């Protein structure tokens, strides 16, 4: 009962489109009509500037952390499933006609929540972060680095939680569903990487 309520709360919090709110309130601009059209920090930064982009990224991270913190008072499994629901809400927001972001910032919020509230071990955040930075340095694609980081997290959780009780199975399942969500949302980017048309990071 409480877990289900937390999951619903996670989806609702995830559905808050901070990119849309900041764009319309402070810049009188709908970021969905510019750039890639995504309601995420990257597109906001391209359309409205680095300060707006940074604000959206921070708020998108924090909404997942808040949702997982609330759910952690129920159970570790509730926390991770609530984090997943929050990321789904970000990608398919109730308040923005189900057109959201690609779950990059929210995935990092998910990793922070796992580290702080599920396992209480900083390595569950820092190991994927190191993977992200290495892949970004090697390949210069945020999409590739994001996928590598979330897969690293799922593998780490699977290896360290493999005792096959009910809660462990729920945690492992949620972590792999999170990986599938990130890969799915970046499928077009993967195709562009294969075609050589994906935009690379130029400041590394």
From TrEMBL:
Localization: Cell membrane
Protein name as it appears in the record: Glycerol-3-phosphate acyltransferase
InterPro entries: G3P_acylTferase_PlsY (IPR003811)
PANTHER family: GLYCEROL-3-PHOSPHATE ACYLTRANSFERASE-RELATED, INNER MEMBRANE PROTEIN YGIH
Catalytic activity, reaction form: an acyl phosphate + sn-glycerol 3-phosphate = a 1-acyl-sn-glycero-3-phosphate + phosphate
Subunit structure: Probably interacts with PlsX.
Role played: Catalyzes the transfer of an acyl group from acyl-phosphate (acyl-PO(4)) to glycerol-3-phosphate (G3P) to form lysophosphatidic acid (LPA). This enzyme utilizes acyl-phosphate as fatty acyl donor, but not acyl-CoA or acyl-ACP.
GO cellular component: plasma membrane
Keyword presence, Cytoplasm: no
Membrane topology: Multi-pass membrane protein
Top-level taxonomic group: Bacteria
Enzyme class, first EC level, given as a word: transferase
HAMAP family listed in its UniProt record: PlsY
EC number assigned by the record: 2.3.1.275
UniProtKB keywords: Acyltransferase, Cell membrane, Lipid biosynthesis, Lipid metabolism, Membrane, Phospholipid biosynthesis, Phospholipid metabolism, Transferase, Transmembrane, Transmembrane helix
Name of the coding gene: plsY
Molecular functions per Gene Ontology: acyl-phosphate glycerol-3-phosphate acyltransferase activity
Taxonomic placement: Bacteria, Bacillati, Bacillota, Erysipelotrichia, Erysipelotrichales
Family: Belongs to the PlsY family.
Gene Ontology biological-process entries: phospholipid biosynthetic process
Pathway linked to the protein: Lipid metabolism; phospholipid metabolism
Annotated transmembrane regions: 6-27, 48-70, 76-96, 103-119, 125-157, 169-187
């Amino acid at each position: 009962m409480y877990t289900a309520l937390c999951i619903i709360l996670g989806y609702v919090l995830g559905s808050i489109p901070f990119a849309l709110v900041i764009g319309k309130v402070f810049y009188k601009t709908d970021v969905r009509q510019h750039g890639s059209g995504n309601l995420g920090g990257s597109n906001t930064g391209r359309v409205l500037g680095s300060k707006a982009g940074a604000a959206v990224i921070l708020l998108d991270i924090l909404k997942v952390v808040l949702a997982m913190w609330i759910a952690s008072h129920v159970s570790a499994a509730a926390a991770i499933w609530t984090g997943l629901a929050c990321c789904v809400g970000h990608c398919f927001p109730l308040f923005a006609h189900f057109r959201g972001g690609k779950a990059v910032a929210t995935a990092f919020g998910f990793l922070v929540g796992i580290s702080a509230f599920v396992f209480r071990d900083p390595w569950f955040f820092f190991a994927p972060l190191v993977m992200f930075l290495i892949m970004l340095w090697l390949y210069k694609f945020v999409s590739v680095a994001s996928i590598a980081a979330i897969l690293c997290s799922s593998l780490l959780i699977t290896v360290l939680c493999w005792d096959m009780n009910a809660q462990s199975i729920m945690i492992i399942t949620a972590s792999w569903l999170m990986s599938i969500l990130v890969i799915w949302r970046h499928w077009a980017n993967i195709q562009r990487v294969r075609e050589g048309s994906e935009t690379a990071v130029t400041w590394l």
